[in-house]
Amino acid sequence: MSFETIKIDTDARGVATLTLARAEKHNAMSEQMLDELTAAAKQIGADKSIRVVILAAEGKSFCAGGDLSWMRAQMEMDGPTRSAQAGKLAYMLQALDTLPQPLIGRIHANAFGGGVGMASVCDVAIGVDGLKMGLTETRLGLIPATIGPYVVARMGAAKARRVFMSARLFDADEAQELGLLAKVVAADALDEAVEAEVAPYLHCAPGAVADAKALIRALSRPIENDVIEATIAALAARWDDPESAEGIGAFFDKRKPDWASGQG
């Protein structure tokens, strides 16, 4: 299957690199990218020759979140259509989260909104000094709903409370403290650090690795379809609130929304 917004490259060891390739858009997630990521996850998961997956990105950002033109288009959609669009992100994350292979995040730059969700579904995410992360949805009158189960599973509820609602940006060191990043390294040490996470798996039985990963999910609170559908419903309800129209409209109008204070 050919892709336009992502790339898949697999080396002779069976290490696949899944790369976000919308560098000109800071890898913001469009409907097409979500569809392609979901298809890629299914393709990779079914390929028994792939032993480890690296999630990476091109350009100046890892992922800027949802594509704003896609979000603006959602303002004009009816409720069921908008919910279907929200489901694309939700079920893409589920597809990555349930990959049988270990997923190693190569977080080379900023990650916001859905980008934080993508880091959260990695088994291990390595980030670089100087990056920023943030759950920025509430600035737009929205909520981090469909990414929420994975973010809370990664951070725990107590730590999530620090950043889930405030939309504030935080640096790589705080992301590590929150549990989003396992390690923080200099940019020129990133590939070495990622390889250090990949290499041990190449000495393990692939089926045992897959079963061990599945066991972790079974021993945790499973993120099943009922949970996902509840997050879609929560986001749909927020879209119907006048705050979302005001927040997104203000963003495109380059003005402050009517609830924002005068300080930043």
Question: What would you say this structure looks like, in words?
Answer:
The structure is a single chain. This protein has 264 residues and is α/β, with parallel strands linked by helices. The protein has a domain at 6-188: 2-enoyl-CoA Hydratase, Chain A, domain 1 (Alpha-Beta Complex), CATH 3.90.226.10. It has helices at residues 31-45, 68-74, 79-97, 114-120, 148-155, 157-163, 172-178, 190-198, 206-219, 225-239, 242-253; strands at residues 6-10, 15-20, 52-57, 61-63, 103-107, 110-112, 124-128, 132-134, 170-171, 183-185. The strands form two sheets. A six-stranded mixed β-sheet has the order 1-2-3-5-7-10, sandwiched between helices. A four-stranded mixed β-sheet has the order 4-6-8-9. A hairpin with a 4-residue loop joins strand 1 and strand 2 (15-20). Helix 3 runs antiparallel to helix 10 (225-239). The mean pLDDT is 94.
- Unreliable stretches covering 5 or more consecutive residues: none
Sheet with the most strands: spatial strand order? 1-2-3-5-7-10
| CATH superfamily descriptor of the domain at 6-188 | 2-enoyl-CoA Hydratase, Chain A, domain 1
Mean pLDDT across the residues is 94
In CATH, the topology of the domain at 6-188 is named 2-enoyl-CoA Hydratase, Chain A, domain 1
Content of β-strand = 15-25%
Give me the secondary-structure category. alpha/beta
Kindly provide the name of the CATH class of the domain at 6-188. Answer: Alpha Beta
Number of helices: 11
Helix content: 40-55%
> What is the string of SSEs from the N terminus onward?
EEHEEHHEEHEEHHEHEHHHH
Largest sheet features: 6 strands, mixed
